[in-house]
Amino acid sequence: MKWIKVALIAIPLALNFAASSAKAQDFPKGPVKIIVPFPPGGPTDTVGRLLAQKLQETWGQTVVLDYKPGAGTTIGVDFVAKSPPDGLTIGMVNSSFSVNPTLRKKLPYDTQKDLAGVTQLFNMQLAIVARPDAPFNNLKELIEYARKNPGKLNYGTPGPGSSTHLGAELLKREAGFDMLHIGMKGSAPAHTELMGGRLDLVVDPFLSILPYVQAGRMKVIATMGDKRVTGYDYPTVGDTLPGFNVGALLGFIAPAGTPKHILQKIQSDTVKALATVDVQKRAQDFGLQVVGSRPEQFDAFIGGEIKRWGRIVTEAKIEQE
Prior knowledge:
Blueprint: H1 2-26, E1 32-36, H2 43-59, E2 63-67, H3 74-81, E3 89-94, H4 96-103, E4 115-130, H5 139-148, E5 154-157, H6 163-175, E6 180-183, H7 187-195, E7 201-205, H8 206-214, E8 219-223, E9 247-255, H9 260-274, H10 277-285, E10 288-290, H11 295-315
């Protein structure tokens, strides 16, 4: 009789699985918005538009990017957190998503309770760049220059508390040198100040500085990942400081409570988009590493990143905003 009991238990489980699969196939039943919590323009926007186009083709529904920048991405992320958990509102986030819980005193949402991971799209390399006439050409020379000229160097980032800022602070401590941080309101102002001679260095995602490097207006001192950017031969910080590895993320999130089958549907269709030739080519052009993790993997990754960045914020004595 045991097999009969097992069969009776298995039947509703199978029916539930079949029902979830059928529901997933019906998704989406209307237009989908991807909330982007940073301004339009640049390589990140280019990749986002390409993914939106691929998902639109797969789903047969309109997929649009809706820009809601400001407050270190919290405005856009808060909009996602307070949206209906039906999968029709997705958020695109970067590393600020995992930094803000420590850096910002009062977030209007709970990162791990009010939001759910869908997938990490890419791992983004960070880069340290200088003007072509800077008196150093690599990290070793930069460290030596900074030690011989204490208090002289400054560096800019897209903003205080960004992964670029925290990564640079970690580098300073591990390499034993100092430089003054100047937080800018985005990458573009930092690039302008560097090329205008008012900043000595900029730490920014590799994809943001690449056009200027290729045009000869900046030079790469080092990238900050544990491996060289695919397709490029720029040195890494790890070449000088073995084991150093700081990167940035780009991923999709959804409101907490979004049904699991919908999260899985969005993730699986996004992974298919990431695997297409044109997305792969664009990712390589921008120095992006394709990830495509499952929802539970992305949630676990974000949890780990919150702890890691929290330690750096505390150790570097960065004031909360």
